[in-house]
Amino acid sequence: MAKKIAVLLADEFEDIELTSPKEAIEEAGHEAVIIGDEAGSEVVGKHGEKVKVDVSIADAKPEDYDGLLLPGGFSPDHLRGDAEGRYGTFAKYFMKESRPVFAICHGPQILIDTDDLKGRKLTAVLNVRKDLSNAGANVVDESVVVDQNLITSRVPDDLDDFNREIANILNK
To answer: What are the alphabetically sorted keywords of the record (predicted)?
Structure first.
């Protein structure tokens, strides 16, 4: 059965960390839905990839989605700057309900705002690992880490491993 995956996104996302996992999700027969500040608006990646926001965060209901994708780049930092904390609250639902969460590079930063990282094993790009550790996570330096519903990766070079694990969990 096809699953619907929420993708939290803002400007300056790392292009390939969106396009490659999104393609893997779609090739596995599932749907990726872009969620951002305003439906119909355009977000632009660090390298020029342009993506239309399908659903605004104000209208998005996490229970409507089977999983969550958090691409890296500067997007996660922008999303965490939301004064109302809507993106962290949205992500928290997936952590609490043990629904699949896929986060690469800087993507795991958003999970800090869920307050649900204590004791979880994950990886990320080097410059956010200390923040994740301070949030209680057991941070390791591996291409991909699967901890129950949470799948994390470090950098674009890890995308093959990351995408393989995304497909594995979605096709269970």
So the answer is: Glutamine amidotransferase
Tokens 């990726």 map to which residue? 32
Instruction: Tell me which of 30, 47, 78, 105 is the catalytic residue.
Output: 105
Please say if 47 is a catalytic residue.
no
What are 132's two structure tokens? 């994740």
CA distances in angstroms from 90 to 9, 63, 71, 87, listed in the order given? 12, 9, 15, 5
User: Is 106 a catalytic site residue?
Assistant: yes
pLDDT for the residue numbered 144: 98
* Parallel/antiparallel/unpaired status of strands 50-52 and 42-44: antiparallel
What tens digit of pLDDT does each residue of 19-35 get? Answer: 999 999 999 999 999 99
CA distance readout (Å), 95 to 77, 110, 120, 151: 19, 11, 11, 11
Sign of the dihedral defined by the CA atoms of residues 168, 103, 2, 12, in that order: negative
Which is catalytic among the residues 30, 47, 78, 106?
A: 106
Residue 89, burial from CB neighbour count under 10 angstroms (0-12, 13-18, 19+):
middle
Which residues of the chain carry a pLDDT beneath 50? none
Residue bearing tokens 């129950």 = 148
